[in-house]
Write a structure and sequence with these properties.
Bound molecules: 6-O-phosphono-beta-D-glucopyranose
CATH architecture of the largest domain: 2-Layer Sandwich
Helix content: 25-40%
Strand content: 15-25%
Structural class: alpha/beta
Low-confidence stretches: none
CATH class of the largest domain: Alpha Beta
Number of domains: 2
Number of helices: 13
CATH superfamily of the largest domain: Dihydrodipicolinate Reductase, domain 2
CATH topology of the largest domain: Dihydrodipicolinate Reductase, domain 2
Distance between the termini: 52 Å
Radius of gyration: 23 Å
Mean pLDDT: 95
Number of strands: 20
Length: 460
């Protein structure tokens, strides 16, 4: 399949950085290999004095991997992009270099800020509207701002340069196939929507337990922690998709309006000792590897008390969800990887007397990678016909041929902001977590501990 992108040039700032090598180029490569970015030019810029060969090597590492499974046409597209790509050394926080770069590129240009947030912010602040050619798209990585006020400030800066639908705030979870599958599951099945509310659902959990530790990311992570890193962005987005009202279309306006409405109704309520938990890992072992205390990891300042596991209960105060807890949890260095949303239904109002065996509330599990759906139901088990037993109806969900970053990039390149976080939503997500961040910083919620490789802090 080929499609014309509305963007002619993808300019990656921070091209010599970790994000570009690890996620962005592999995502782009798979997209190019499908033929869906025909004619796109790739330009990298970074503060490092890289030679053209160094950039070529980086591009080839990602592109060669994608070429292995590509068609002949896909390989040609990758080769064409690799041949024409350029690298520019530029300090984009200085007045001039970014504007000069933009002026010299074939437009429309999508500028991908694969840079630390303060650097991206500075680069945007220094740009003047007349230096940004019409049609330019600005692509911002998370975290978007450092709080509600700073996100608002950043939104103002960006809006002085380009219109909202040309701003792409990246949340790569919105590019995960499973998350998009939630919409199909919820809105294409008549048996589900009538029970998708407080009358029938007891709680919703969104769990993202990782079996990875810090992985050398202290510089970023120690200033962020699990609440900012995972919950403020990714998990609130998943929650919103699980909770939105049925939109008329899945066009960007309808879907993003629905997401915004849910998030506006959401909050984490005090006392935070009841509605939140935070914890930090101690030395342990993960997959046979020894892991040091988080506090002893290189680059970590133990006095910051950065949490590596965060759990919050979000309340959505609207007709559909009033009183239903949405539990969002994410932690690092846990023994078992668990990435899923679990919807627990209320028990039946009356189980006819005479049944024996287990009667447990139904649960619907939506697994994020491997992408699965599992509905746990009570059925009359084998043997005694009066005895109830548990059965799981399991399905594998459609996996995208693109990586999450490829999905998001495709939206950027074709000018569709559907999979980008809208400005008001970015502010709203900070508004939800900010009181918790303040309470935690003030030491109002104890920082618990858990061993790396364990299941997390002991249940309360
Ligand atoms: C990133 C976080 O945004 O998402 C990481 O910064 C986290 O800490 C990652 O590990 C999880 O996403 P994925 O797609 O790697 O599972």
């Amino acid at each position: 399949m080929t499609s014309q992108t509305t963007v002619k040039t993808l300019l990656i700032l921070g091209a010599s950085g970790d994000l570009t090598g690890r996620l962005l180029l592999p995502g782009l490569a798979r997209l190019v290999a499908t033929g869906r970015a025909a004619g796109l030019l790739l330009v990298g810029a970074g503060s490092d004095p890289w030679s053209p060969e160094q950039w070529q090597e980086r591009v080839h590492t990602a592109f060669d991997a994608a070429a292995e499974t590509a068609t002949d046409a896909g390989r040609d597209a990758l080769a064409a992009m690799a041949k024409s790509t350029e690298y520019h050394q530029a300090d984009v926080t200085a007045d001039g270099p970014l504007a000069e770069l933009l002026a010299g590129l074939e437009g429309p240009v999508a500028v991908y800020f694969a840079l630390p947030p303060q650097v991206s912010q500075k680069a945007c602040e220094i740009l003047r509207p007349e230096q940004v050619p019409a049609g330019t798209r600005l692509v911002m990585e998370k975290p978007f701002g450092a709080g509600e006020e700073s996100a608002r400030e950043l939104n103002r800066t960006l809006l002085s340069l380009v219109p909202e639908d040309h701003i792409h705030r990246v949340d790569h979870f919105l590019g995960k196939a499973t998350v998009l599958n939630i919409l199909g599951l919820r809105f294409a099945n008549n048996f589900l929507e009538p029970v998708w509310n407080r009358d029938h659902i007891a709680k919703v959990e969104i769990i993202f337990d990782e079996d990875l530790a810090l992985e050398g990311r202290a510089r970023y992570y120690d200033g962020a922690g699990a609440l900012r890193d995972m919950i403020q962005s990714h998990l609130l987005q998943i929650m919103a998709l699980l909770a939105i009202e049925p939109p008329a279309t899945i066009g960007e306006r309808d879907l993003r309006d629905a997401i915004a409405a849910v998030l506006r109704a959401s909050s984490i309520k005090p006392p935070y000792t009841d509605s939140t938990r935070r914890a930090r890992y101690l030395a342990g072992s993960l997959g046979g590897k020894d892991i040091p205390d988080y506090a002893a990891e290189e680059g970590v300042d133990p006095d910051r008390n950065t949490e590596t596991l965060a759990e919050v209960r979000v309340d959505i105060d609207n007709w559909r969800w009033k009183g239903v807890p949405f539990i969002l949890r994410s932690g690092k260095a846990l023994g078992t990887k668990r990435k899923e949303a679990v919807v627990t239904f209320r028990p039946v109002p009356h189980l006819p007397a005479g049944f024996t065996g287990r009667d447990t509330p139904n649960t619907l599990r939506i697994g994020f990678g491997p992408d699965t759906l599992e509905l746990d139901v009570d059925v009359n088990g084998p043997g005694d016909i009066f005895s109830l037993d548990r059965a799981a109806l399991v399905a594998e969900l459609n996996a995208s041929e693109l990586l999450p970053y490829g999905e998001v990039l495709e939206g950027v390149l074709t000018g569709d902001p559907l999979l980008s976080v809208r400005g008001d939503t970015a502010e709203e997500c900070w508004r939800i977590v900010e009181p918790v961040l303040a309470a935690w910083a003030a030491g109002k919620v104890p920082l618990e501990e858990y061993r790396a490789g364990s299941g997390g802090p002991a249940p309360e």
